Amino acid sequence: MATVVLVGTLDTKGAEYAWLATRLRAAGCEVVTVDAGVLPPPAGAPAGDIDAAAVARRAGHDLAALRAGGDRGAAVAAMAEGVERVVADLYRQGRLHAVLAVAGSGGSFIAARAMQALPVGVPKLLVSTMASGDVAPYVGSSDLTMMYSVVDVAGINSVSSRILGNAVAAAAGMAAHHERSLNHPQPPGRKLIGASMFGVTTEAVDAARRRLEELGYEVLVFHATGAGGRALEKLAAGGFLAGVLDLTTTELADELVGGVLSAGPDRLTAAGRAGIPQVIAPGALDMVNFGPAETVPERFAERRLLVHNPTVTLMRTTAEEMAALGTTLGHKLAAATGPAAVFWPLGGVSAVDAPDGPFHDPAADRAGLVALRAALADSAVTLHEIDAHLNDPAFAVAAADHLHRLITAHDRTTTHA
């Protein structure tokens, strides 16, 4: 039977969660309720199958001490950590086929943290008062689904019963589908490759994708806009990918300089930690991304800027920044536990870094390459300096072919181990 895990603050929403549990059981699901509440529950409130004290202990805290401390923010953070670990435990034990939460802002933070930590493909539904605004903090790079509660989560009434009833039906259906997929898995399909792309690297990625598809792979392309890079990292960490063709590492530049499309400090690490074969290129490292021209920070007023479109302004990276990026890229790859290679195009790293392009700067690009060589000097990572532009089909195909060779050799080694 499919199991739906309910994550909620029973100190304030016990009646609503009792209502949800009753209807989920009527829909044919088993239910495990995880209590993330910090305050003492009112008399007669339902107890969670995993109570708040157990949740706090799972994060290394004492619930009574959290209550006595009087710091709600710290208590919520502690309970969020505990819920994340409890939910992960339930998933590993095979006792979770979907997660459902109904919450305001604090409860949404707690539930979303646990949901984001689950693998892609595990159903996650969050009914929230916050769903009509900026949902990025709650969704992150996960496949979490948010539903707006319309009315506050404060009792069951003629409106909330319809909305929460739809949530119950959705969670029950998704849980049943997920449980069936686990018990009756589909035959394995083509191996998956994760590839990163930007508008200024599209020609390269398209050519590489066609070549990899000819070789029998399925290619998942991620737009390198911060969220795309995080999604690529999440799938690599989750074991979905046979290889990574990271031709567009531009998010590293935004992280270094302060652009708007950073994927965070962990970009370019998941595949290495997982031992997944990867081929990397410095695609679009020549640019940092900002919004409309008037939003570019004043400290960059004298830099080389390019209005890409009315909502995107690009700034050329300097030789010093390229050197720092080469060092960062090299250190991240040198730490990889699996096979890795860098393909560096000597003719330019993006469509606007061609000989006649507005960001053409061979000295800056070379500074990145020199720093990369130094960072990789004592590593097993191979560096291929290709006399071509990044968007030259020959460059893209060579990178794709090399990734195929790395995957083939890696599979052979793994099979014989």
Describe it.
The protein has 417 residues and is of the alpha/beta class. Helix content is 44%, strand content 18%. The strands form three sheets. Strands 7-6-8-9-13-14 form a six-stranded parallel sheet, with helices on both faces. Helix 2 packs across helix 4, helix 4 (72-92) packs parallel to helix 5 and helix 10 crosses helix 12 (319-334). It is elongated and about 75 Å long. The relative contact order is 0.09.
Q: Span from first to last CA?
A: 37 Å
What is the H/E string?
A: EHEHHHEHEHEHEHEHEHHEEEEHEHEH
Number of helices: 14
Helix content: 40-55%
**Which overall shape is indicated by the principal axes computed on the Cα atoms?**
elongated
- Return the structural class: alpha/beta
Keywords:
about 45% helix, about 425 residues
